[in-house]
């Protein structure tokens, strides 16, 4: 009787867990439902930073963040053009997301504890690793930041860089004069015009600013880094299915590079691969898409649209581009970087 009782209890527990999982899977996603009803993803991006999100001469948004928006649209609609880019400043981005103006931020936004716990938002997963740095004129004779006593430093309002800069100069007891701007292009213009001795922000953005200067060789990004700046997508709290979609979309782009799946070979890999992981990733077996309430080919569609992470990085800010930023920590973990795709099974 005791054994029968244990068996009954086990069956009841399994049924409870299974029922809870099925109930969870049936919970609607208000964000996904709104996107589908609208027919487009509203994606918040920056106001213009080369390599991340910047309109080209035809007004088409280009860059890592812009292509992640396109890839997510492809995962939802199988159409990377079904995205509306909404440029947002650093000081307005979280308000715009919280109010529903955008569905997601792919906008060089550092994941921090207070942002995650006090804004009613959630950071999802890291897609880019960076650190705070400073750019100066190459002929300024400055080799380290603590030598910039009394310097005027351009900063962007509403960023972690304001605090990082103030904290560092306070820690070494060196005075400086901040000049705060709303947008990166404004700070870059002030730097070029001589209104600031330096510009302090994340190193990737400094490389982008340098690439757009009339004479890039006149500028040097100092080698020191003063913070950890992991960029992650931000969404509103309370929509678990949308969180899962964004998290696993980002993971799928990294997983594709780990598996050697590219925009060019994805179709052949889907047709011929015998690797169970590749077959799951590309939707030959449908369970991953079903778990997200998406088409089984959701990741395949995204990879075909924007490529894997390595392709995306090299195309938008790699060493062959004007930004010319080495991958550094944004290499795969197998190549000494920090990128690591969670198991997709």
Automatic annotation (TrEMBL):
Which keywords appear in this protein's UniProt record, sorted alphabetically? Answer: Signal, Transport
Q: Does the keyword Signal apply?
A: yes
Q: Where is the Solute-binding protein family 3/N-terminal domain?
A: 40-264
Translocase in keyword set: no
Q: Could you tell me what this protein is called?
A: Amino acid-binding periplasmic protein
Q: Where does the signal peptide begin and end? A: 1-23
Q: Which organism is it from?
A: Roseomonas fluvialis
Q: Which family does it belong to?
A: Belongs to the bacterial solute-binding protein 3 family.
């Amino acid at each position: 009787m005791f054994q029968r009782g244990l068996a009954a209890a086990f069956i009841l527990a399994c049924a409870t867990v299974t029922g809870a999982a099925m109930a969870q899977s049936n919970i609607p996603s208000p964000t996904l439902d709104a996107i589908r009803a609208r027919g487009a993803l509203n994606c918040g991006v920056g106001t213009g930073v080369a390599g991340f999100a910047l309109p080209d001469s035809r007004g088409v948004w280009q860059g890592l963040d812009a292509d992640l928006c396109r890839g997510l649209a492809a995962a939802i609609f199988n159409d990377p053009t079904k995205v509306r880019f909404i440029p947002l400043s650093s000081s307005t981005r979280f308000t715009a997301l919280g109010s529903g103006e955008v569905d997601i931020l792919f906008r060089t936004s550092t994941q921090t504890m207070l942002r995650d716990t006090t804004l009613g938002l959630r950071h999802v997963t890291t897609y880019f690793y960076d650190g705070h740095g400073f750019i100066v004129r190459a002929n300024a004779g400055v080799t380290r930041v603590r030598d910039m006593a009394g310097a005027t430093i351009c900063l962007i309002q509403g960023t972690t860089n304001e605090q990082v800069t103030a904290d560092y100069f306070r820690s070494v007891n060196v005075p400086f004069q901040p000049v705060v701007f709303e947008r990166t292009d404004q700070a870059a213009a002030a730097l070029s015009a001589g209104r600031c001795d330096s510009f302090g922000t994340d190193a990737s953005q400094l490389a982008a600013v340098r690439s757009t200067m009339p004479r890039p060789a006149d500028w040097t990004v100092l080698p020191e880094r003063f913070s950890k700046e992991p960029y992650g997508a931000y969404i509103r709290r309370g929509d678990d299915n949308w969180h899962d979609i964004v998290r696993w979309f980002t993971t799928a782009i990294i997983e594709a590079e780990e598996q050697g799946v590219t925009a060019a070979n994805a179709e052949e890999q889907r047709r011929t691969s015998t690797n169970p992981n590749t077959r799951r990733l590309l939707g030959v077996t449908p369970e991953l898409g079903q778990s997200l309430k998406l088409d089984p080919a959701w990741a395949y569609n995204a990879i075909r649209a924007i490529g894997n992470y390595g392709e995306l990085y090299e195309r938008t800010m790699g060493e062959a581009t004007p930004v010319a930023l080495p991958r550094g920590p944004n290499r795969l973990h197998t190549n000494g970087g920090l990128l690591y795709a969670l198991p997709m099974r």
